[in-house]
Specification:
The protein is mainly β and 515 residues long. 11% of the residues lie in helices and 35% in strands. The chain folds into 2 domains: 10-199, Cathepsin D, subunit A, domain 1; 223-503, Acid Proteases (Cathepsin D, subunit A, domain 1). The strands form 11 sheets. Strands 5-14-13-32-33-16 form a 6-stranded antiparallel beta sheet, with no helix packed on it.
Length: 515
């Protein structure tokens, strides 16, 4: 599953090379920062790429180089899709001002195949993806050299998009079986393993504290300094009679724990259907089945905005109730704790007033300032009537899932293992400044079962200056509140679901007939 994302971008500068890991520092802002060369090795065991954390709740981006000579491109990191696709220099969104006005964005950077000596056409018009709000991205399949994290994957197949609804490309890190191509091909994770660049088709994701500058992705390895306690191994769900196609694991309950020690536990058993959880970095928000999320809404006094068609919450939770948290339970011994402030996105205009509805509290009891709540109901997808593809309505069971996006993943350390069909999961050690790298291997039948991280949270949050992308496309630098205000400006005119999906990064892709 894939989400359109808000515009906060990564720029890479040279990093240190140690323990077979290539590390990069990052700066916030639009692309254009020089990407320096990194010493090459005949073989590396792991590759590390740092990511930027969008303070206002958007996606995680990485800069790559495509072609010979390399053209610098910005791509959304997405564990919920499987194709890499780049924006063509002739993409409609990049050349049509009316489309730019419609989607509220311009193209960050583009790729020109005629300027690459290593470009090859694989299949003309072979790529197409349709988003929840009806927008479509389409183009050709090509192959070209692809550099990320200081190493180059030779002749990587990817999509060259000429019809677009977003201003950056996407780097999909899922199973190749979920590609949009009629004939499946080795994607970037497959090729990194096939070309001997990593020892296992796996990577570790550390999104880090929402308030800090950066997170990281580690290809082919695990960093034990980035999580707390034992790394628990979870098997992926395999569809009956099918193949592994997504990062979906068992999920048993969610518990709201209050400052005074009381708890509200909501098990998945209250539903009349299973609700396994998809772990998807391409999704800004998280989604629970309506039967599970409504008790949480009642407990926290949320407000449903029919204009935005989203659940909002009092912004006071950003600074009060410091011990209030939600605990997501996967096994009897594995629970990931998410503090309430990680679930509060202060991205609405300061003077924004939720539209009236019979379900809303009377005006005198409404909060003075509302924020977007980081957990939404999957009922959104049926209420809007947008779960349709090729004019065929989906059954109600389509929304019986749990999708844990960035509002959850920032509190977790996640190892995605495509070789052994497993997920490694532990509580994140936020703001870690050290590393202890364990390379992954394709040998054996499992991820390492005895890895243990640090004993407890090691550091505390220290505010640092950040930069954001201005609504007019200009790069600005300032405090975290400046970043939030910039995102707020872009929401001033939001009065439809389609617009808010694009701004808040909450649209997910639906497969079309291209398989």
């Amino acid at each position: 599953m894939k989400l359109l994302s808000a515009s906060l971008l990564l720029a890479l500068v040279p990093g240190a090379l140690s323990q077979n890991v290539v590390r990069f520092n990052v700066t916030k802002g639009l692309p254009g920062v020089h990407l320096s060369s990194v010493p090459s090795l005949a073989r590396r065991g792991t590759y590390s790429e740092q990511l930027i954390n969008n303070i206002s709740g958007g996606g995680y981006y990485v800069q790559v180089k495509v072609g010979t000579p390399g053209q610098t491109l910005t791509m959304l990191l997405d564990t919920g899709s499987s194709d890499a696709w780049v924006l063509g220099h002739d993409a409609d969104l990049c050349t049509d001002e009316e489309l730019q006005g419609l989607y509220g964005m311009t193209c960050t950077d583009t790729y020109n195949p005629s300027e690459s000596s290593s470009n090859k056409l694989v299949k003309k018009d072979g790529f197409k993806i349709t988003y929840l709000d009806g927008g479509t991205a389409a183009g050709d399949y090509i192959s070209d050299d692809f550099s990320v994290g200081g190493t180059t994957v030779k002749s990587l197949q990817m999509a060259y998009v000429t019809k677009a609804v977003r201003g950056t490309g996407i780097l999909g890190l899922g199973f190749s079986i979920s590609e949009r191509a009629a004939t499946k091909y080795p994607n970037i994770i497959d090729e990194m393993a096939n070309q001997g660049l990593i020892g296992c088709k796996g990577y570790s994701l550390y999104l880090n504290d929402r308030r800090t500058d950066s997170g990281s992705i580690l290809f082919g390895g695990i960093d034990t300094d980035k999580f707390i306690g034992p790394l628990e191994i979870l098997p992926l769900h395999k569809p009956p009679g099918g193949n592994y196609s997504s990062f979906e694991v068992n999920f048993t309950s969610i518990t709201v724990s209050y400052t005074n020690g009381t708890q509200l536990s909501i098990p998945t058993t209250i539903l009349d259907h299973p609700a396994p959880a998809v772990l998807d970095s391409g999704t800004t928000l998280s989604y629970l089945p309506d039967g599970m999320v409504q008790p949480i809404y009642s407990a926290l006094g949320t407000i449903y905005d029919p204009d935005l068609r989203m659940t909002l919450i009092d912004c006071v939770y950003l600074t009060t109730e410091p011990q209030l948290h939600l605990a997501f339970t996967f096994t009897p011994t594995l629970t990931i704790t998410v503090p309430i402030w990680e679930l509060i996105l202060d991205i609405l205009p300061p003077n924004y007033t939720p539209s009236t509805s019979p379900k809303q509290p009377p005006p005198q009891t409404r909060p003075s300032k509302t924020c977007v709540f980081g957990i939404q109901s999957t009922a959104l997808f049926t209420q809007t009537g947008t779960l349709e593809s090729d004019s065929k309505s989906q059954s109600p069971s389509t929304v019986n899932f749990t999708l844990l996006g960035d509002t959850f993943l920032r509190s977790a350390y996640v190892v995605y293992d495509l070789t052994h069909y497993q997920i490694g999961l532990a509580q994140a050690n936020l703001n870690s400044t050290s590393s202890t790298i364990v390379p992954l291997s394709s040998e054996g039948t499992s991820l390492p079962t005895s890895l243990t991280g640090v004993a407890a949270q090691q550091t505390t949050y220290t505010p640092t200056p950040t930069a954001t992308t201005r609504p007019n496309g200009e790069n600005g630098r300032g405090s975290s509140s400046a970043a939030e205000n910039a995102s707020s400006d872009s929401l001033m005119r939001v009065k439809s679901l389609g617009e808010v999906l694009r701004v808040l990064a909450v649209a997910w892709d639906i497969e079309t007939g291209t398989k």
